[in-house]
Amino acid sequence: MNGSQIAAIVLNDLRILSRVRWVRAALLAGMVIAGLIAANAGGETGIDRLDALRSGAASLLLLGGLAVAVCLGGGAFAHDASRGYLGLLVGSGATPSTVGAGRVGARVIMLAVILAAWTAALQAGSAAIGEGADGPLLVHAASVLGNLVLVLCASTAMASVIGPIAAGVFGVMVYVSAQATVNLKAALDSGAVNRDSSIFVEPFYAVFPRALVSPMINEMQLRDVAGPAAPRVDVSGLEVVVPTSTWASVVWTVLWAGIFFALAAYGVRRRQL
């Protein structure tokens, strides 16, 4: 793969994505929702105000972000391949893998731009209601971005060989699996599940991707105020709080995103362009 060709494809795809209506709508809708979240939190007092802001922000970043990641990843190849655009790129001298890497890279950057805009709107809302800049929320947004990049790369890996809907479903399944991985490990460590289950849980945790958990979500989940983004986990009647991710988990999840990225680039070689 040629680095300059990948960069050219990334820049061209970013220009195209910036003009796509649903991408613009998603960016603006998220910023509007961020404003509404801040306005709603402004009606509270004390710690309830901060909890309302962070709970709403966590839900927006996760649920809205998942929708954007799945749409960006699942639709990375099928439409343009059917129109012959990808074949035109290959005919101009780029290899299929170069085209695949460039398109995935552009979508990762666009996802980061959208999430950054939403986070900036949330930070502005936090300042507007008197809470100032929210450092823990900023760290949480970075952890959510890591999870969403994993979902996007998984979706694009499947989109390189199958249809967009099935690819999007696979991306969501990867996130559900990654969240289940850290939930099961937390349940095992807290004694909520039998230690005999470690023969299954430990290998699962060691091999599969892990959802990243920020300190903010861990603290809010402990007080049961995290909202839909991180409800308490109940195992056999015992409440389990998922701990903050370690740097090892961050590296492991990034590595898995890289694997899916590489599979997406390779998969383009196996499809008709």
Biggest pleated sheet:
2 strands, antiparallel
Secondary-structure element string: HHHHHHHHHHEEH
Shape: flat
Q: What is the residue-mean pLDDT, rounded to a whole number? A: 87
Task: Please count the helical segments.
Answer: 11
Taking the alpha carbons of the first and last residues, their distance comes to 18 Å
What's this entry about, in short?
A hairpin with a 2-residue loop joins β1 and β2.
Describe the structure.
The protein has 273 residues and is mainly α. The chain is built from 11 helices and 2 strands. The protein has helices spanning 3-17, 21-42, 46-74, 78-82, 85-91, 96-128, 135-159, 164-189, 198-207, 215-222, 247-267; strands at residues 233-235, 238-240. The chain is flat, with a radius of gyration of 20 Å. The relative contact order is 0.15. The model has no long low-confidence stretch (mean pLDDT 87).
Topology:
Blueprint: H1 3-17, H2 21-42, H3 46-74, H4 78-82, H5 85-91, H6 96-128, H7 135-159, H8 164-189, H9 198-207, H10 215-222, E1 233-235, E2 238-240, H11 247-267
Antiparallel strand pairs: 1-2
Helix pairs in contact: 1-6, 2-3, 2-6, 3-6, 3-7, 3-8, 6-7, 6-11, 7-8, 7-11, 8-9
Core attributes:
single chain, 273 residues, mainly alpha, two-stranded antiparallel ribbon, 11 helices
